[in-house]
Amino acid sequence: MLNKFNKLRRSVTRRLIPRDAHSSLRMWLVGPWEDKTPELITNFDAQPVLVLAPHPDDEVIGPGGAIRHHILAGAPVTVAILTDGRWGGYNGDGSLVDRRKDESRRAAEIIGTSPPRFFDAPDGNLVETPDLVARLTQLFTEKTPKYIYLPALTDLHPDHWSTNRLLSAVLPKLPTPIFQNLIIRGYEVWSPTLANCCVDITSTVDAKQKAINVFVSQTSADDYTAASLGLNRYRSLQHLHGRGYAEAFMQMTPEEFSDLYQAASLRHEPK
C-alpha cells in the first residue's frame, strides 16, 4: 500500500511542478531516495559493465575512476561511444573523428577496458532512431551487463540527455533476466547530479588523469583534466574529508530510472 501511495505522490508531484523548472528540482521531488549523505560504494564484483558515452572522452571524464575499479575486480567492461564527435574541436583537415576514436582507444588501454564500440551517430544530433535502438539492444543482449553507466538525467548537454532517451527506448526491449539484473548509474560531466552514491577513486585517479590527458583534441582548448578532478576532489568531502578524490552517481533500478526519466522529460517537451 505504501509503495502505491508513493507512486501516486510522485505522479501528482511530477505534474504540479512548473514545466520550466530545472530537472534537478524534479529529481529531488519525485525521487525515491531520502535526503542523506551519498552511500560510499566499496565493493566491486566481476559482473559485466556497459558504459554509454555520448562522445569520445565522456567515458573517462565521468566514471573513469569507478570503471578502473571494475577492471581491477575482474569485470569485463564494454564502452559504447554513441556519436562520431565531429563537432568537438578543430576539424579543418577532416581528421577529427579519427583522432578522437584513436584517443578513446588509447584511453581504454590506460583504464584497462577493451577497445570501444563506435556507433557513429551524428554529433550534436543524437536521436533514438530504430536502427540505433536495435544496435544498442543487441549490445545489451550480447554483453548481459549488470551495471550501466551513462550521463546523469540532470545533465544539460542535449546529446547527454538523448543518451538517456536511448536507454529508455532500449529497456522495454530487453529480456526479463537482463532487465531485472540492471543497476543504472548516472555520472557527472557537464552538470553535477543529485547523487545517492559515490566511489572513492583516490587509488585510481592517476589512471583517470592519464586517460583524460590523451584526449589532446579536447584538452588543448579546455582543461577538462582540472575541471573533472576538481569536481572529484569536491565530491571527496563527504567521506574522505577532502583528502582524496571521489566520483558521484545517481544510482537507480530500471523502474526508478523510468520514473525519473518521465519527470525529467517534461522539461524537454514543447511548451
Question: How is this structure best described in words?
Answer:
46% of the residues lie in helices and 15% in strands. With 271 residues, it is of the alpha/beta class. Helix 2 crosses helix 13 (254-265), helix 5 (96-111) packs antiparallel against helix 9 (205-213) and helix 6 packs across helix 7. It starts with a helix and ends in a 6-residue tail after the last helix. The model has no long low-confidence stretch (mean pLDDT 88).
List keywords for this structure.
271 residues; alpha/beta; Rossmann fold; eight-stranded mixed sheet; 13 helices; 46% helix; globular
Short description:
This protein has helices at residues 2-16, 23-30, 58-61, 64-72, 96-111, 130-143, 158-170, 176-181, 205-213, 216-219, 224-235, 237-240, 254-265, and strands at 39-41, 49-53, 77-83, 117-121, 147-151, 183-187, 197-200, 246-252. The chain is α/β, with parallel strands linked by helices and 271 residues long. Helix 2 (23-30) packs across helix 13 (254-265) and helix 5 packs antiparallel against helix 9.
